[in-house]
């Protein structure tokens, strides 16, 4: 996919959006298949992130999937660790390296996705880099901790003079945890503008708390962003760009995409266990 | 669609062992010269001196503190290396997880707060362990020796919690956590150096009150090690941390009564128990452990290994009631059943059985 330039130099998002959507659908099918094979694995949460993940992992992040150990790579912290199958799907599609270190690694293939949650697999039920998935920096899955990890990664990057971005995908449900607010304060205290927090808003979460998320927006920047209604990747991209240019880190709100099942797909026939 | 390449790789980072200068040089470096003449210094102050010494020799060392750096002595580092000190305010959970992020990027974070408040981040520490994060946690004002501030500031279950991680293997040739509970400033200094050289999670307890020096300035401390401070044929007493000073006084009193005790400083978990078990076999086959925390710590550690060894009985003295304020550590020790008199009585009873 090539960026199209308009006469005024502005990117057109139309074709980009359709490409992102097509990739999101493709990866979503992998998610359904792999979680079905595994017999568990939170497919709905993973599917809800598909467009965000495509936008980040294929377009926004600067990194080499074959060398996740590169210290200058942009990083992704999946604070809502249970949604990890969509990241595994994207990483396999990109041929990302897995293994415990550079000398003991191999490139992932789509076939590897069927090993999700197996004892011998590097694809643990939640992000677990120590078992051989170096795209991540820390284990997540116990909710509410990812934004803090991202802040630590951002501090280290600043100390080392590395121009890299730390993307953190958090959820509204986990934002009931006090630590999320501790992290928001910490990010502001230390002016960690290299952290990009993306907050996914679910319409159906058990502990939905959009009002408090608006408070987070107020706490971490001087403006308030309304929840992002669009499910396309183009708007995510424009939001990340806005966030990076600001004096304070801007959280990006992302409403859960509904009715993701594309017409004519075989998704509905897949029985999955969340 | 393919992602864009990252920026160019920066220069290589230092690796290899981290060597600190001798204890006395490090104290002079931070203006704690007086302690060298007094032969007395709080373990928490020795930690601060060690942290500065580490910062001097390795740029990977960073410090995080939860708004108590003047009490944990992390402020010594903050003054010398403000760019590598991160004030985390009163938010310990974020502090631990942020340290995990720093460690993932190659830093060696030393994270300090009161041991009591570190407990607030137990889940975060679990996740750090799963991540094999190379972070060092320092809990100051540990146990009950802080005295006057009372039980809301005292850590009592921390040893049991961190000890639970000193057995499982990381899959990388080490255990999930190393625990250190030094009794004096010199051992605290060198235990900090040991922690810096371990690739993985470590926890060290420091104490509020000043403690007399027990060891020479150049004493060598080792992983899995322990120190025999006194020899005797009648009983083997094992202790650690600040209360070890009370144990030494008790051993002195017992000696005057004609009871000769082995005294061991078990300053780390996991520990090689061989010297302790050998000494116990040669002194009636009885061990008395003394610690200033709840159960699950030193008593459990020694009892577990003795149970496997066989033919050794282990009696333990731990904090027997919920503590309260008192002006001195000794008063609190007595209140909870681990005072000087209690230790003497217990040791005497064990020898006379």
Short description:
Chain A is of the alpha/beta class and about 270 residues long.
Entry keywords:
heterodimer; A: alpha/beta; four-stranded parallel β-sheet; B: 353 residues; alpha/beta; five-stranded mixed β-sheet
State the strand order across the main sheet of chain B.
Answer: 3-2-4-5-7-6-12
Q: How many angstroms separate the termini of chain B?
A: 80 Å
Question: How many helical stretches of chain B?
Answer: 15
Number of strand elements of chain A: 6
Please state how the strands of the largest beta sheet of chain A are arranged side by side: 1-4-5-6
Number of strands of chain B: 14
The helix content of chain A, as a percent range, equals: 25-40%
Categorize the overall geometry of chain B. globular
What is the beta-strand fraction of chain A? Answer: 5-15%
Name the chain pair with the biggest interface and residue counts per chain: A-B, 57 and 45 residues
What's the helix-strand series of chain A?
A: HHHEHEEHEHEHHE
Shape estimate of chain A:
globular
The amount of beta strand of chain B, in percent, is: 15-25%
Average predicted local confidence, pLDDT of chain B: 96
Quaternary: heterodimer
Poorly predicted runs of 5 or more residues of chain B: none
Care to describe what's here?
The complex is a heterodimer of chains A (274) and B (353). Chain A has helices at residues 13-38, 43-48, 50-60, 85-93, 146-159, 178-189, 210-220, 233-245; strands spanning 75-78, 97-101, 104-107, 166-171, 195-201, 252-255. Chain A is α/β, with parallel strands linked by helices and 274 residues long. Chain A has a four-stranded parallel β-sheet with strand order 1-4-5-6, sandwiched between helices. In chain A, helix 1 crosses helix 4 (85-93), helix 3 (50-60) crosses helix 8 (233-245) and helix 5 runs parallel beside helix 6 (178-189). The longest helix of chain A is centred in the first third of the chain and has 26 residues, at 13-38. Chain A is globular, with a radius of gyration of 18 Å. The longest helix of chain B has 15 residues, at 43-57. Chain B is built from 15 helices and 14 strands. Chain B is of the alpha/beta class. In chain B, the strands form three sheets. Chain B has a seven-stranded mixed β-sheet, with helices on both faces. Chain B has a five-stranded mixed β-sheet with strand order 9-11-10-13-14, with helices on both faces. At the A-B interface, helix 1, helix 3, helix 5 and helix 6 of A face helix 6 and helix 8 of B.
């Amino acid at each position: 996919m090539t960026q199209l330039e308009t006469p005024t130099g502005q990117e057109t998002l139309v074709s980009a959006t359709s490409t992102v959507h097509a990739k999101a659908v493709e990866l979503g099918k992998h998610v359904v298949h792999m979680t079905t094979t595994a017999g568990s694995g939170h497919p709905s949460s993973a599917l809800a992130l598909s467009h965000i993940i495509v936008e980040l992992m294929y377009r926004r992040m600067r990194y080499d999937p074959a060398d996740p150990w590169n210290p200058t790579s942009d990083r992704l912290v999946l604070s809502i660790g249970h949604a990890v199958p969509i990241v595994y799907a994207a990483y396999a599609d990109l041929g990302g390296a897995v293994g415990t270190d550079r000398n003991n690694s191999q490139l992932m293939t789509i076939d590897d996705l069927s090993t999700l949650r197996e004892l011998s697999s590097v694809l643990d039920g939640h992000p677990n880099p120590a078992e051989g998935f170096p795209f991540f920096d820390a284990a997540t899955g116990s909710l509410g901790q990812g934004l803090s990890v991202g802040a630590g990664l951002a501090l280290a990057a600043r100390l080392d003079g590395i121009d890299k971005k730390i993307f953190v995908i958090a959820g509204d449900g986990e934002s009931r945890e006090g630590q999320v607010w501790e992290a928001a304060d910490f990010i502001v205290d230390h002016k960690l503008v290299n952290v990009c927090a993306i907050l996914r808003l679910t319409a159906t979460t058990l502990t939905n708390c959009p009002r408090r998320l608006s408070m987070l927006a107020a706490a971490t920047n001087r403006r308030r962003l309304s929840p992002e209604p669009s499910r396309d990747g183009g708007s995510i991209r424009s939001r990340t760009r806005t966030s990076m240019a600001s004096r304070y880190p801007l959280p990006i709100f992302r409403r859960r995409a509904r009715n993701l099942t594309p017409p004519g797909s075989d998704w509905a026939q897949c029985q999955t266990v969340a | 669609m393919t992602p864009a390449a990252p920026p160019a790789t920066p220069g290589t980072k230092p690796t290899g062992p981290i060597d600190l200068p001798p204890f006395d040089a490090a104290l002079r470096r931070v203006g704690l010269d007086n302690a060298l003449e007094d032969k007395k210094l709080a373990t928490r102050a020795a930690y601060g001196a060690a942290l500065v010494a580490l910062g001097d020799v390795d740029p990977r060392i960073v410090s995080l503190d939860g708004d108590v750096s003047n009490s944990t002595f992390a402020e010594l580092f903050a003054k010398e290396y403000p760019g590598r000190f991160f004030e985390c305010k009163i938010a310990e959970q974020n502090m631990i997880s942020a340290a995990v992020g720093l460690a993932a990027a190659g830093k060696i974070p030393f994270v300090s707060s009161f041991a009591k408040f570190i407990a607030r981040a137990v889940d975060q520490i679990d996740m750090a362990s799963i991540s094999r994060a190379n972070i060092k946690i320092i809990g100051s004002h540990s146990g009950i020796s802080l005295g006057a501030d009372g039980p809301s500031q005292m850590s009592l279950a921390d040893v049991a919690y961190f000890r639970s991680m000193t057995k499982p293997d990381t899959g990388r040739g080490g255990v999930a956590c190393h625990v250190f509970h030094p009794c004096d400033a010199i051992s605290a200094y060198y235990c900090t150096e040991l922690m810096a050289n371990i690739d993985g999670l470590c926890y060290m307890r420091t104490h509020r009150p000043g403690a007399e020096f027990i060891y020479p300035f150049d004493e060598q401390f080792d992983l899995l090690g322990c120190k025999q401070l006194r020899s005797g044929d009648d009983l083997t007493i094992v202790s650690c941390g600040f209360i070890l000073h009370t144990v030494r006084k008790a051993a002195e009193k017992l000696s005057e009564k004609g009871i000769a005790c082995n005294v061991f400083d078990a300053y780390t978990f996991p520990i090689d128990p061989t010297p302790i078990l050998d000494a116990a076999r040669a002194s009636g086959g009885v061990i008395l452990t003394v610690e200033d925390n709840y159960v699950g710590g030193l008593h459990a550690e020694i009892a577990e290994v003795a149970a496997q060894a066989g033919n050794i009985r282990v009696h333990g003295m731990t904090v027997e009631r919920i503590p309260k304020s008192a002006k001195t550590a000794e008063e609190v020790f007595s209140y909870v059943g681990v005072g000087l008199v209690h230790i003497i009585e217990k040791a005497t009873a064990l020898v006379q059985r």
